[in-house]
Design a protein that fits this description.
mainly alpha; two-stranded antiparallel ribbon; 20 helices; 76% helix; transmembrane; ubiquinone binding; NADH dehydrogenase (ubiquinone) activity; NADH dehydrogenase activity; membrane
Length: 507
């Protein structure tokens, strides 16, 4: 058993320790120790992966640190683990969000112990999904990550939390139903035409035995199933309501990591395992993702709730991930993964700061806020940093990701792809409009309520969460090459496989 399994074992041990904890201090201690261990393990994984890549060509070893333990042999279901560069950066992102989310929830009440139990179970599913190399195992952890969201929002949320939790659960479970149909279709038809039944992602991709007409049947099931979680238009409507009602750390993990499972699954399973269908049907989903990018940005412009603004911004940025993947160029696809990493960090920072402002002011309404730069300067500066990263200012992570996406997308010479790229580029201007408008209103306008002068700035635990995220957002923007190189190494063989199948499909 490789050390990758510790990404699942540590959260399970945390669940046991939380169950045994008798007071809030012990609960917090368990979360700090566990989240720190996960972050340390994720950092170790990055260095171990970089060292291993120096001696192992990416083309020959698509997954490293692999292991396979049989679970149910009659259906060829194995507990298979393994990571490539894409998995590594997603695991690191997840560890960062869990660590900072722990401190952002330091004062979470009521039922702090129960809250952290469900929060940890959600993180177990996320880590398990990213280390899995078996279709069934990935789907199992995917479900584990989705189920706790209902209670975390329905019990500890705000506003119309029951409605938001039920809407989120029903739509994501609907997507899961599509996924299981698609996964079983891949399993059975790959076995029928290759002669070997397997759930291994690598083995299915290597056989490439599923005929194009069958791929076209199951590709929409997989892409839409994961696309629902990735806020694909018009299946995105659960996202703003879910974000607006969720507690702060849940919004951080939800937008920062959970939505990335959608883009990751669309590329890893739908496009990689069904490459001929990806080429033939990509134009349909490219239109939908282009709408997502622009519609999400326009919708953010007319919102007055800070969480809804960031939620619709997430729809736009997650749509940009799927948009870039469907462009199927090396630069654009690398930009898509960088966007997943960048958006995860900056949207977690946004939701953390918004939650802290709401905790103090009692409102998220832009019209009722003002003068926060004078009252709580640390949180105000953090909000500005998140906003600048969101609109793609050079020096922050958003610029690196978006430049790769739009330059790579424009590499496609045909009129259709370039038209979609130009339309999607307008989102940059729209994003600047709603970010700068909100910054001006809530930070620099006259203080609307004299009671706001008595409010305090961020506490020490909140500064750890916010400061850590600012460091990551700025660090990725100033030194992106390490992440870009890791992603490129993993992307190259996968994209070559997809493009090669596309050439066959076009013959």
């Amino acid at each position: 058993m490789t050390f990758l399994t510790f990404f699942v074992v540590i959260p399970i041990l945390m669940l046991l320790a939380l169950w045994l904890a008798r007071n809030d201090s012990q609960v917090r201690g368990v979360m700090v120790v566990g989240s720190t261990a996960l972050l340390a393990l994720a950092i170790y994984l990055v260095f171990a992966f970089l060292e291993a890549r120096e001696t192992m060509p990416a083309e020959k070893f698509p997954f490293l640190f692999g292991d396979a333990i049989p679970w149910f042999k009659p259906l060829h279901i194995f507990y298979r683990t393994g990571v490539d560069g894409i998995s590594v950066v997603m695991i690191l992102l997840s560890a960062i969000i869990v660590f900072t989310g722990t401190f952002a929830s330091w004062q979470q009440h009521p039922m702090q112990k129960e809250y952290f139990l469900w929060f940890t179970l959600l993180s177990t599913g996320v880590f398990g999904f990213f280390i899995s190399e078996d279709l069934f195992t990935m789907f199992m952890f995917y479900e584990v990550a989705l189920i706790p969201m209902y209670l975390l929002i329905g019990v500890w949320g705000t506003g119309p939390k029951e409605y938001s939790a039920m809407k989120l659960t029903l739509m994501l479970m609907g997507g899961s139903a599509l996924l299981i149909i698609g996964i079983l279709g891949i399993y059975f038809f790959n076995g029928q035409y290759s002669g070997t039944y397997t759930m291994s992602v690598v083995e299915i991709a290597a056989s490439n035995a599923i005929p194009a007409f069958i791929q076209k049947i199951f590709f929409p099931f997989i892409f839409i199933g994961f696309g629902v979680l990735g806020a694909l238009f018009p299946f995105h409507t659960w996202s703003p309501d879910g974000h607006a009602s969720a507690p702060t750390a849940v919004s951080m993990l939800h937008a920062g990591v959970l939505m990335k499972l959608g883009g990751y699954g669309c590329f890893r399973i739908a496009m990689y395992l069904l490459p001929q269908a990806a080429h033939q049907l990509s134009w349909i989903f490219l239109i939908l993702t282009t709408i997502s990018v622009v519609y999400g940005a326009l919708s953010a412009c007319v919102q007055t709730d800070l969480k809804y603004i960031n939620a619709y911004s997430s729809v736009s940025h997650c749509g940009m991930v799927l948009f870039a993947l469907l462009m199927m160029t090396q630069t654009a696809c690398t930009g898509a993964i960088l966007q997943m990493l960048s958006h995860g960090l900056m949207t977690a920072l946004f939701f953390a700061v918004i939650g802290m402002i709401y905790h103090r002011c009692g409102t998220r309404d832009v019209r009722r806020l003002g003068g926060l730069m004078k009252i709580m300067p640390f949180l105000a500066v953090a909000y500005v940093v998140a906003g600048l990263a969101n609109l793609g200012l050079p020096g922050f992570s958003g610029f690196v990701a978006e430049m790769n996406i739009f330059v790579g997308s424009f590499e496609n010479p045909d009129l259709f792809h370039r038209t979609c790229t130009i339309i999607a580029c307008t989102s940059i201007v729209i994003t600047a409009v709603y970010i700068l408008r909100v910054v001006g209103k809530i930070l620099y306008q006259q203080v609307p309520d004299q009671a706001y002068y008595k409010l305090s700035d961020a506490s020490w635990d909140e500064r750890i969460a916010v400061g850590g995220l600012i460091f990551c957002v700025a660090g990725l923007g100033m030194a992106p090459l390490w992440a870009q190189n890791i992603i490129n190494d993993a992307m190259a063989p996968m994209l070559h496989h997809i493009l090669s199948a596309g050439v066959v499909a076009g013959m």
